[in-house]
């Protein structure tokens, strides 16, 4: 009927903001409450809130494992971490949301290096974009965060201003 679908109209501002937030949540694999906490932390920090938010999301351990090419997806990276296959500075870490600091080394345990998931991910890693803020050594299965991640360096187009507007209401 007439009141049915609104075809041809542009989506409302709220709808665009919500879609952008949902897209980023889906990409990073973070629940709504956790995302809200990350936003609050980003808002407390100095600088642009949107930049800070993506900086926090990119420095999560599960995201680092994915970016280094040790896992085919963020969810499989989370699983590797939960099953204690990942070392941070030589110590076992089983917390996917752990924040990695610049210069910290992340590696795969020596007895876990033959897991099929990791081996196939490393083969497919050549096709993946290399990011300037991470450095990976595929032979030793370790990598490090070289610098603070910048939003402009990410391979996915994100309008962080929409998310900031949504949470600033």
How would you describe this structure to a colleague?
By secondary structure, the chain is an alpha+beta fold. Helices cover 43% and strands 10% of the residues. It has 7 helices and 5 strands; from the N terminus they run αααααβββαββα. The protein has helices at 13-28, 32-44, 49-58, 61-68, 74-82, 116-124, 160-167, and strands at 86-88, 91-92, 105-108, 134-137, 142-145. It has a 5-stranded antiparallel sheet, with helices on one face. Strand 1 and strand 2 form a beta hairpin. The longest helix is centred in the N-terminal third of the chain and has 16 residues, at 13-28. The radius of gyration is 18 Å and the shape is elongated. The mean pLDDT is 90.
Q: Could you list some keywords that capture this structure?
A:
alpha+beta, 5 strands, single chain, 43% helix, 5-stranded antiparallel beta sheet, 169 residues
Write a brief caption for the model.
This protein is an alpha+beta fold and 169 residues long. It has helices at residues 13-28, 32-44, 49-58, 61-68, 74-82, 116-124, 160-167, and strands at 86-88, 91-92, 105-108, 134-137, 142-145. The longest helix has 16 residues, at 13-28.
